[in-house]
C-alpha cells in the first residue's frame, strides 16, 4: 500500500492535476499563531501575538504583505514536525524555512498525512541538527510533497531509524538541486541503489557520515551533478569503471574516510571540471596516479592522506598548474622530493604536505619558487643535508614543519625574512648552532619547537617580545646560561619545555608574570600528540608534545625516544582553549639542568598549571606553600633536586584529608586555621618517591583530634601526625595517625634527598586546561 500511495502521489504532483485541499487557505497570522500554540516552549516566540503584524514576529521576514521566510537557528522552539507541516509549510508566500538546531522532533512520515499542501513558492527547507526520524523513503517523499523545492537540508538528524524500503521501484528523477542527508543513520543499500539510479536535476548531493557499507552502486542520470560527498561511510572495494562515468560535470568529489582499495578510477581523467578531489583515509594503493590526474586542468585541491601509495613522486605533478593544495601525507612514497615540483613559475601551490612518508635526500632549494606557499610540512621522513636558505624568500609562509628527519647544520638566518611565520617546528634532527637572532622579526610566531637537536648558546631574551608565542620547546639540547626573565613577558605562553640542557642560575620569579592574563587561543585547533614519559632514568622530562597533523599513530615507533622511553600513555586530539582572560601556563618542565636557588613562590600563581617538573637540579630552600594553589596540578616532580632542604608538606591531594579539612581547602584554597604545617629536615627522614602517590605530614592540635578519628597519645603531649596517602588519585585513600616519623618509612640517605613525585591518573589534556583528547597506547 505504501508503494502505491507513493507512486500515485509522485505522478500526480508532477502532473499538477490534483489539489490536496479545497477551499481558501488559512491566513499567515493564523498559521503562525497556531504554530506557536503547538510548541512545548511557546515563550521562545514571545512577541508572536494576535494583535501584532506577523511581519514583526521574531524570525519572520516578509516580501510585500506575505511571509517570505521563517528562520530560527539554535533557538529551542521545541516543535513537533507535524506542526511544521500543518502550519508553516502551507504559508502561501513562503520561500525559505530554516529551523536549524531548533529542537524539532517527530517523524518525516507526518508529511504523508498533511492537510494542506506546501506553499507554491517554497524553494528552501533547512531542518538540520534536529531530532527528526524516518526512512530514506520519507526524506525523498518530502522533496516530492513540495514540488517547487530546490534545496533540502536534513543533515544531523536520525533519518534511517524508521521503516526502510523505498516504495517506488522506478525512480523518475528529482526536481531538487541540492539535497543534504549527511550525518544521519541511513544504511540500506537497496534504498541507495534506487536513489542513485536517477538523480534528475540534482547538482549537490551529500550523503556523508551515514552507515552505508558495500560497493558504490552505479550513479545514473547525473549529468548535472557538480558536488558529491560520500565520505565517512563504510564503502569498500574498487571503484569500478562506469560507477561515476555519467557525472562529467563534477567539480567536488569527496570519497574520504571509507575503505576503498585498488587504484584510483581511471574514468576520473574525463572529468574536466573537477576542482576538489579528496580520497584520504582509504586503502588506495599503487603509484601516484599522475596519468589520471594530469588531464585535470582545473584541479585545485588533491587530498590523498593516509593511503598506501608507494613508488616515487613524479615531477610531472607540476603540470597541474591550478593545484593549490597537495596532501600526500601518511603514505609510503619514497625517493627524492622532485626538484621539478616548483620549477614552473605558473605553479601556484599554497599548501604542500609530504609528512610521514619515506622521502630521502636533500630538500630541493627550488621549493622556494612556489612563492605562494603558506604551509610546508616535510616532517617524519628521512631527509638529510641542510635546510635550504632559499626558503627564506617564501614571504607568505605560515608553517615550516620539518621535525623527525636527519637534517643538519644551522637554522638558516634567512628565515628571519618570513615575517608571516607562525609555526617553526624542527624537533628531532641534528641541527647545530644557536637560535638565529633574526627570528626576533618573526613576531607572529606562536609555536617554536626545536627540541632534541644539538643547538647551543643562550636562550635569547628577545623571545619575551613574541606576544603571540604559546608553545616554546627547546628541551634536549645544549643551551647554557640563565633562563631569561623576559620569558614572563610572553603573555600567550602556555607550554614551556627547557628540560635536559645546561641552564644555570636561579629560576626567574617573573616566569609566571603572564599568569591570569592569557586569553587568546592562538593554537586552537592544532593537531597534537602528547607522549607521557614513564619516569625511568633513561627517559628525561615529563613528556613530549608533538605537532601531529597528517601522521599515523602506529608510526610513533619511528621516534628515537621510543627506544628509551616506555610511553605510559599517548594522548591525541586538537587543542582548545576554555579559560577566559585568566589563563596561565599549563606545562613547565625545567628538569635536568643546573638550576640553583629557591623555588619561586610566584609559581603558585599558575592556576591552570598541570605539570611542574623541576627535578634533577640544584635547588635549595623550602618548598613554597604557595604551590598549594596549583588547582589543576597532575604531576609535581622535585626528585633529586633539593640539597640541604627542609621539606614542607603541601596539600595537593585534597581527597586524602578528612572532609572538614577538604571542605575548607576547597572553598578557600587554604588550610583551616587549626591545622599547622610542620617542616622536617631531610636529615631526619627520607621520603620515598612513589609514582601516583602523595605523602603529607600535618600537625593536628589536640582540640581537633576528634575530627580526624581515633588518636594515640604522643610522648610529651606533642600533637599527633596525620599521614595521608593517595594512590592513583582515585578513591583509594587512607588516613592514619602515627606517633613518630619513623612509622612513615623514614630513614636516612646520604647526599641529595629525593623529593616526592605527585602524579594523577587524570588525563594530560591538550595544551589547554580544559580539552579532553582521546587516549590510546603507544
TrEMBL record:
It is a single-pass type I membrane protein. One of its GO terms (cellular component) is plasma membrane. Keywords: ATP-binding, Cell membrane, Glycoprotein, Kinase, Leucine-rich repeat, Membrane, Nucleotide-binding, Receptor, Repeat, Serine/threonine-protein kinase, Signal, Transferase, Transmembrane, Transmembrane helix. GO terms for molecular function: ATP binding; protein serine/threonine kinase activity. Residues 1-23 form the signal peptide. Residues 768-778 have a biased composition (Polar residues). It catalyses: L-seryl-[protein] + ATP = O-phospho-L-seryl-[protein] + ADP + H(+); L-threonyl-[protein] + ATP = O-phospho-L-threonyl-[protein] + ADP + H(+). InterPro entries: BRI1_island_dom (IPR045381), Leu-rich_rpt (IPR001611), Leu-rich_rpt_typical-subtyp (IPR003591), LRR_dom_sf (IPR032675), LRR_N_plant-typ (IPR013210), Plant_RL_S/T_kinase (IPR051716). Its EC number is 2.7.11.1. Residues 516-580 form the Brassinosteroid receptor BRI1 island domain. It is found in: Cell membrane. Residues 27-62 form the Leucine-rich repeat-containing N-terminal plant-type domain. Residues 758-778 are annotated as: Disordered. Pfam families: Island, LRR_1, LRR_6, LRR_8, LRRNT_2. This is non-specific serine/threonine protein kinase. It comes from Vanilla planifolia (Vanilla).
Amino acid at each position: 500500500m505504501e508503494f502505491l500511495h507513493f507512486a500515485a502521489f509522485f505522478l500526480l504532483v508532477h502532473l499538477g492535476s490534483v489539489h490536496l485541499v479545497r477551499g481558501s487557505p488559512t491566513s499567515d497570522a493564523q498559521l503562525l499563531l497556531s504554530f506557536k500554540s503547538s510548541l512545548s516552549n511557546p515563550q521562545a516566540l514571545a512577541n508572536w501575538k494576535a494583535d501584532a503584524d506577523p511581519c514583526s514576529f521574531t524570525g519572520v521576514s516578509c516580501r510585500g504583505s506575505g511571509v517570505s521566510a521563517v528562520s530560527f537557528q539554535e533557538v529551542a522552539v521545541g516543535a513537533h514536525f507535524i506542526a511544521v507541516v500543518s502550519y508553516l509549510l502551507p504559508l502561501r508566500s513562503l520561500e525559505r524555512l530554516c529551523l536549524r538546531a531548533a529542537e524539532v522532533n517527530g517523524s518525516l512520515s507526518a508529511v504523508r498525512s498533511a492537510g494542506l499542501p506546501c506553499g507554491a513558492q517554497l524553494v528552501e527547507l533547512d531542518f538540520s541538527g534536529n531530532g527528526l526520524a524516518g526512512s530514506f523513503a520519507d526524506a525523498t517523499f518530502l522533496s516530492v510533497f513540495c514540488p517547487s523545492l530546490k534545496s533540502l537540508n536534513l543533515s544531523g538528524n536520525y533519518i534511517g531509524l524508521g521503516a526502510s524500503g523505498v516504495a517506488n521501484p522506478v525512480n523518475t528523477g528529482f526536481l531538487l538541486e541540492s539535497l543534504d542527508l549527511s550525518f544521519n543513520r541511513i544504511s540500506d543499500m537497496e534504498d541507495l541503489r534506487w536513489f542513485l539510479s536517477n538523480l534528475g536535476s540534482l547538482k549537490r548531493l551529500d550523503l556523508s557520515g551515514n552507515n552505508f557499507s558495500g560497493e558504490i552502486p552505479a550513479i545514473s542520470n547525473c549529468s548535472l551533478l557538480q558536488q558529491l560527498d560520500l565520505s565517512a561511510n563504510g564503502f569498500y572495494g574498487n571503484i569500478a569503471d562506469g560507477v561515476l562515468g555519467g557525472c562529467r560535470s563534477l567539480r567536488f568529489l569527496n570519497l574520504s574516510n571509507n575503505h576503498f582499495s585498488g587504484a584510483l578510477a581511471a574514468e576520473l581523467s574525463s572529468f574536466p571540471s573537477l576542482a576538489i578531489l579528496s580520497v584520504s583515509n582509504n586503502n588506495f594503493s599503487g603509484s601516484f596516479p599522475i596519468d589520471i590526474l594530469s588531464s585535470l586542468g582545473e584541479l585545485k585541491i588533491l587530498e590523498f592522506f593516509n593511503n598506501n601509495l608507494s613508488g616515487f613522486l613524479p615531477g610531472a605533478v607540476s603540470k597541474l598548474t591550478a593545484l593549490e593544495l597537495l596532501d600526500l601525507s601518511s603514505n609510503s612514497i619514497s625517493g627524492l622530493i622532485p626538484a621539478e615540483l616548483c620549477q614552473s613559475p605558473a605553479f601556484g601551490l599554497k599548501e604542500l604536505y609530504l609528512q610521514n612518508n619515506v622521502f630521502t635526500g636533500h630538500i630541493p632549494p627550488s621549493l622556494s619558487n612556489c612563492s605562494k606557499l603558506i604551509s610546508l610540512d616535510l616532517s617524519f621522513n628521512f631527509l638529510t643535508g641542510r635546510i635550504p636558505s632559499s626558503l627564506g624568500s617564501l614571504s607568505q609562509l605560515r608553517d615550516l614543519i620539518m621535525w623527525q628527519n636527519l637534517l643538519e647544520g644551522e637554522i638558516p638566518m634567512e628565515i628571519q625574512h618570513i615575517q608571516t611565520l607562525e609555526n617553526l617546528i624542527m624537533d628531532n634532527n641534528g641541527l647545530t648552532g644557536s637560535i638565529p637572532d633574526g627570528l626576533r622579526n618573526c613576531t607572529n610566531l606562536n609555536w617554536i619547537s626545536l627540541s632534541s637537536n644539538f643547538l647551543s648558546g643562550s636562550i635569547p631574551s628577545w623571545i619575551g617580545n613574541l606576544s603571540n608565542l604559546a608553545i616554546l620547546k627547546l628541551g634536549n639540547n645544549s643551551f647554557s646560561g640563565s633562563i631569561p626573565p623576559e620569558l614572563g613577558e610572553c603573555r600567550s605562553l602556555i607550554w614551556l619545555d627547557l628540560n635536559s640542557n645546561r641552564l644555570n642560575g636561579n629560576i626567574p620569579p617573573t616566569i609566571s608574570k603572564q599568569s591570569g592574563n592569557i586569553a587568546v587561543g592562538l593554537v586552537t585547533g592544532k593537531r597534537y600528540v602528547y607522549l607521557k614519559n614513564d619516569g625511568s632514568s633513561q627517559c628525561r622530562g615529563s613528556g613530549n608534545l608533538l605537532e601531529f597533523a597528517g601522521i599515523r599513530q602506529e608510526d610513533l615507533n619511528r621516534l628515537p625516544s621510543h627506544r628509551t622511553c616506555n610511553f605510559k600513555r599517548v594522548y591525541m586530539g586538537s587543542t582548545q582553549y576554555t579559560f577566559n582572560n585568566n589563563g596561565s601556563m599549563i606545562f613547565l618542565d625545567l628538569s635536568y639542568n643546573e638550576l640553583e636557588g629557591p623555588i619561586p613562590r610566584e609559581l603558585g600563581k599558575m592556576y591552570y598549571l598541570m605539570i611542574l617538573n623541576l627535578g634533577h637540579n640544584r635547588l635549595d630552600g623550602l618548598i613554597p606553600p604557595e604551590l598549594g594553589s596549583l588547582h589543576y596540578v597532575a604531576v609535581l616532580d622535585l626528585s633529586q633536586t633539593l640539597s640541604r632542604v627542609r621539606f614542607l608538606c603541601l596539600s595537593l591531594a585534597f581527597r586524602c584529608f578528612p572532609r572538614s579539612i577538604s571542605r575548607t581547602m576547597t572553598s578557600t584554597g587554604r588550610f583551616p586555621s587549626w591545622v599547622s604545617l610542620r617542616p622536617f629536615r631531610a636529615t631526619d627522614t627520607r621520603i620515598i618517591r612513589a609514582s601516583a602517590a602523595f605523602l603529607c605530614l600535618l600537625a593536628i592540635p589536640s582540640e581537633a583530634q576528634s575530627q580526624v578519628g581515633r588518636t594515640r597519645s604522643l610522648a610529651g603531649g606533642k600533637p599527633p601526625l596525620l599521614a595521608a596517602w593517595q594512590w592513583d588519585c582515585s578513591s583509594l585513600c587512607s588516613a592514619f595517625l602515627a606517633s613518630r616519623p619513623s612509622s612513615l618509612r623514614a630513614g636516612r640517605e646520604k647526599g641529595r634527598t629525593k623529593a616526592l613525585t605527585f602524579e594523577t591518573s587524570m588525563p594530560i589534556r591538550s595544551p589547554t586546561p580544559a580539552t579532553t583528547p582521546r587516549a590510546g597506547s603507544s
